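Re: [ENG-882] Designed sequences occasionally contain unexpected residues at chain ends

Forwarding the minimal case from QA. Structure tokens:
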């Protein structure tokens, strides 16, 4: 077999290309072309792809363009597509120095699907998470008030419960579990943007501030402490709201009293999220250190909005490791049963 022989098939190649582009934050529109092409191929009759590749008619299929057709033709001919070869050269860990923590992470407690503002269906997120070696992930789409992110009403969230159950049935006893959660908005008064009954039905609740980030310090502290003390809250998401780089520009961190907020987290057993998104890198180092001293638990999350972004965990793992966060205090190093006992005990 030649060095560049390829036998995984065009769908795997297209998905892999999309994954590798996403983890490097490539333009969503370009990535969508690869994911869309993979979807088109999955709908083809047996033998059709090979026939079309031979006849040069792949581009008659919806969503197949010049670049994706070239990838498919290479795969059908048993060659590694050039696009893939190039991306694989850059496929190593996204951050160095986090190996020990990354290896200990069994799952991810914060990610979005196309039910809210994510770019991919639940099934694609699950498939990629499983390929990354995760044992579980928590699906945490947005709550109703975040309309720009297509937040889920109680009715849609209720429907999603059935979909999550169906995905798990489909997964069978293979070991991987899709848990159901929410990234619920912390309202101005510290209440959560979903009914208590609904929150109680979910496995894990991540509570985050997404509005009025510039609230005055004392009010913001009260707001966050109230949310942390809500009996259904498990994780305090990206606590400062800062943006350090990226397409949305930068944003300073919110003003609040970290001692009060982290004391409340420690007392309530709420994990402080180390949000791994490169543009967030939230909380900053000094606040992670303060949460450590306060005795808090942590959750290292990707906050992925696309499958490739599930790999962002490397960034959070590197930060946690360099700051000396003990593995035992990172809840997503725990086996799923322990995690669920913690979240619902
Ligand atoms: Zn958020
Ligand atoms: Zn999120």
């Amino acid at each position: 077999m030649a060095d560049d022989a390829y036998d995984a098939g065009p769908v795997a190649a297209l998905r892999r290309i999309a994954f590798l582009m996403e983890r490097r934050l490539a333009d969503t529109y370009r990535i969508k072309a690869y994911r869309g092409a993979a979807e088109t191929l999955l709908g083809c009759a047996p033998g059709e792809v090979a026939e079309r590749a031979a006849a040069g008619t792949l581009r008659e299929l919806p969503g197949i363009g010049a670049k994706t057709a070239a990838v498919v033709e290479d795969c059908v001919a048993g060659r590694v597509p050039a696009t893939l070869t190039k991306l694989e050269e850059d496929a190593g860990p996204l951050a160095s120095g986090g190996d020990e923590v990354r290896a200990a992470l069994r799952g991810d407690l914060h990610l979005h699907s196309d039910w809210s503002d994510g770019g991919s269906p639940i099934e694609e997120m699950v498939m990629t998470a499983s390929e990354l070696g995760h044992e579980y992930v928590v699906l945490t789409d947005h709550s109703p008030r975040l309309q720009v992110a297509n937040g889920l009403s109680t009715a849609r969230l209720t429907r999603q419960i059935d979909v999550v159950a169906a995905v798990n049935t489909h997964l069978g006893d293979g070991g991987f579990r899709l848990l159901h959660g929410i990234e619920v908005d912390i309202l101005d008064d510290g209440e959560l943007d979903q009914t208590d009954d609904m929150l109680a039905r979910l496995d894990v609740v991540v509570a985050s501030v997404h509005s009025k980030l510039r609230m005055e310090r004392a009010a913001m502290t009260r707001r966050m402490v109230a949310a942390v003390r809500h009996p259904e809250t498990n994780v305090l998401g990206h606590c400062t709201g800062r943006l350090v780089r990226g397409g949305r520009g930068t944003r300073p961190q919110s003003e609040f009293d970290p001692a009060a907020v982290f004391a409340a987290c420690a007392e309530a057993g709420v994990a402080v999220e180390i949000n791994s998104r490169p543009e967030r890198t939230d909380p900053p180092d000094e606040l992670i250190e303060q949460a450590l001293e306060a005795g808090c638990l942590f959750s290292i999350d990707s906050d992925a909005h696309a499958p490739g972004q599930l790999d962002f965990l490397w960034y959070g793992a590197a930060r946690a490791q360099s700051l000396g966060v003990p593995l035992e205090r990172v809840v997503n190093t725990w086996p799923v049963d322990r995690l669920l006992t913690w979240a619902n005990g």
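QA comment: On inspection the terminal residues look reasonable. The longest strand covers residues 177-185. Proposing we downgrade this to a documentation issue.
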